[in-house]
Write the structure tokens for this entry.
Amino acid sequence: MKIIVSKDEIQEKLSNIQNIVEKRNTMPILSHFLLDVGKKGTYIVATDLGTALKEQLEGKVEREGKLCIPARKLFEIAREVEGDLLLESGDESDESVSGGGGWLTVKAGASNFRVACLQANEFPAWPVMEDSEEIAVDSKTLLEMIERTIYSAGESDTRYTLNGLLFHAKPDNTFLTIVGTDGHRLAMIKKEMHGAVKGEKRIIVPRKAVSELRRFLDRESEKVTISIGSSHLLFHVRTGSSDKVEAVEFLTRLIEGTYPSYEQVIPPSNEKKVFIKRDVLTKALRRVSIMSRERANAVRFDLEQNSLVISSSNPDIGEAREEVAIDYTGDKISLGFNARYMIDVLGAMMSEQVILELQDQLSPVLVREEGNEDYRCVVMPMRI
């Protein structure tokens, strides 16, 4: 194997896989990436067995071959050297290094490195997507949907199905719905998709996977094709300009289990409606929460005619209180919230004014943007 690549090209591609390659030594092969050099295309493949990434590498191919290379070490080398990099290895029968993978020689300018590698045939096989169905979503739309729901997904939750986003598609329906919840708050967004599914799909995609996918969606790409398999989801992303188109394949294992019925969580008819400026509420919450108990981050909302009083109290520190003008004509009501949850919801919204729809002290509160029915958030109140 022999290939010449630019410093910027390989540094960018290796940067993309750093969060995917396994950093622990439970399986040494997972700390490596597969470099597949061919005359018809060169690819980098990385996996942690839960997610996998395959991306093109542009370079001048002088000899074909495959090799598993330590991802972190080559990234550090590419970051520090000057000029183009020459990557060269002997044939696959070279077993002079422990593990049988041979050596990779890296040359750049006056720098020379010799890196111990593993055999290409030890690398995990790319899963076969049998009987898959395909839909497509505009790249910027998919990025927006992920950004506006991922904050509400669980992290290391014992209810493992909450540690991901639900992708929900129905037959004879042109909309894709993405939902995130950790049991305390919920975010749901619905956008148009291209194509249709044969049967209803309720797919739970791991939080780590969608978080990594985001880095490929903010580029100059038009549509993302999503292949839906029985246990995996494959995202095909084509990025770049007309003179240089790059293909990225991002595959993730799905979370097995039943996702909560989000439709039942979203209140359909909360009677009390509060209209308020989004930035005004956000800033007030940030100020008042300074004096709240750190773990609970609790604040109190006292609502009455056209007035909202936000307050917090901590016996060890003190208290805070702020009054905010609102548009509200309902009965007096007091509620408690985790300020961070409410701030996260407001931070994901875009409209100048938001609407809080309430029922009573302990019922779910619906938060939505003025004039937008396709994005809805729910925050559970706290006991006060």
About this structure: The first strand starts at residue 2 and ends at 5. The chain has seven helices and 25 strands.
